Amino acid sequence: MAKNKKRVAIFSFTCDEGCSIYLIEIFNKKLMEWLEKIELAYFLSVKDKVEIKDFDISLVEGVISTAKDKKEIEKIRAESKILIAMGSCAATGQPSGQRNLFGASEAAEIKTELEANDYLPKCLSIKEAVRVDDEILGCPIDENKFIEVFEKYLI
Ligand code: SF4
Description:
39% of the residues lie in helices and 25% in strands. The protein has six helices and seven strands, in the order E-H-E-E-E-H-E-H-H-E-H-E-H. The chain binds iron/sulfur cluster (SF4). Iron/sulfur cluster is lined by residues 15-16, 18-19, 61-62, 87-89, 95-96, 139-140. This is NADH:ubiquinone oxidoreductase-like 20kDa subunit domain-containing protein.
């Protein structure tokens, strides 16, 4: 582990991954500066999978839609000092939790499929699934807000 650097992890659950793609745009401008203070410990978009363990800051996008995802976000929470809900899906459950808005007939159509594949009855925002320390709204995230929130935890 790099000495004194914050271990930062970025996770995607059910969504179009638009926030983490946009985050790469922000990294293009800011990562060289941030790398003096952070180590990118987990980011599937740019590196191989590594163990979920001992993170200082976890950024999480998307919604929790399966029982397996629920266990994983609970593990991430337990291994993260700070957990930030990144984007509207993570903070509010929408737009990626659209099935929560289905009417009775649409919900009945997908019920068997959900049960057969270990899906939760409803999608959960990250905030509904675990305690979060902060949030960054926007679809995708707002760049200035991301920088403002993220840099608070680099001190
Ligand atoms: S908030 Fe929007 S851009 Fe971000 S993951 Fe959800 S749908 Fe994609």
